[in-house]
Amino acid sequence: MWDYTEKVKDHFFNPRNVGEIENPDGVGEVGSLACGDALKLTFKLGKDGKIVDAKFKTFGCASAIASSSVLTELIKGKTIDEAMNVTNKDIAEYLGGLPDQKMHCSVMGREALEAAVDNYKTGSTEKRKLQGKVVCNCFGVTENEIAKVVMENNLHSAEEVTNYCKAGGGCGGCKGEIQKIIERVQGDKITDAPVSVPKKAGRLTNIKKMQLVQQTINEQVRPALRAHGGNIELVDIVGNKVIVAFRGMCAQCKLAEFTMRDVVEAKLKEFVSDELYVEEETGSANEPGEGRE
Predict the structure, then answer these.
(1) Strand order across the 241-248 sheet
(2) Ramachandran class of 132: left when φ > 0, alpha when ψ lies in -120 to 50, beta otherwise
(3) What are the residue numbers of the active site?
(4) Which helix (H) or strand (E) holds 235?
(5) How far apart (Å, rounded) are the C-alpha atoms in residues 157 and 246?
(6) Which residues constitute the domain of residue 141?
(7) Is residue 107 located within the same domain as residue 16?
(8) Taking the complete model, does pTM exceed 0.70, yes or no?
(9) Which tens digit of pLDDT belongs to each residue from 255-285?
(10) N or C: the chain end with fewer CB closer than 10 Å?
């Protein structure tokens, strides 16, 4: 029997906002009865642009029902943009945690929200599905969906991916390909256990500084950029100046300066040293390559 928290039990036995809104502003349907879980989310906006009501219909287990119930509670009173900041982690944390094998229920809630917002913005009533090659034929999960849950939840094994999106949970024939996607997203070959970047040490030698900078870029920066078709290359370190070059889509992005300051530099200050600052390589070729590892 699953070890559910009291909050999960409460939202399962006493779910909030069950039903379907008449003439909703947004409708999102995800999952399928064939796969064991299905969720329909509807919401209504008020005159101030905030979500005044949200309801759900869910076919699934206790975790799926509880996650759907919490989702509707979390997004009510928020604007569309604010609601889109709600993550599957927020849903799981609100419930006091979910069993590892049930984390896919929180992901389904997040996907339903994305589908409902997409319906509100575009008017499309088709079930929203990320583009990409289907990797798991048993559950119809694409490589883009797998890469997304890996990046957003910092996953490091095929078993974890199964817990979050069911991919690999059927015949298991796709687990090798799932592992390759994990390695591609995470930037480096990885072991079964995640490698954590050490927190800032005291005095750093030049060699240690270089190792920590490269490790931070590989584990904290590169996965996010790769998920959007970009990449980053460490060019040189001169004193406290870290010189980088953006590759792929990042090389042509108008927000590259923001990325350099608010993502790359922020992560290096957090994990390596407060004294570090980042500059982009002058005269970079900006070719759409993968960059050196």
Answers:
(1) 230-238, 241-248, 277-280
(2) left
(3) 35, 105
(4) strand 230-238
(5) 28
(6) 134-186
(7) yes
(8) no
(9) 677 777 777 888 888 888 888 999 988 754 4
(10) N
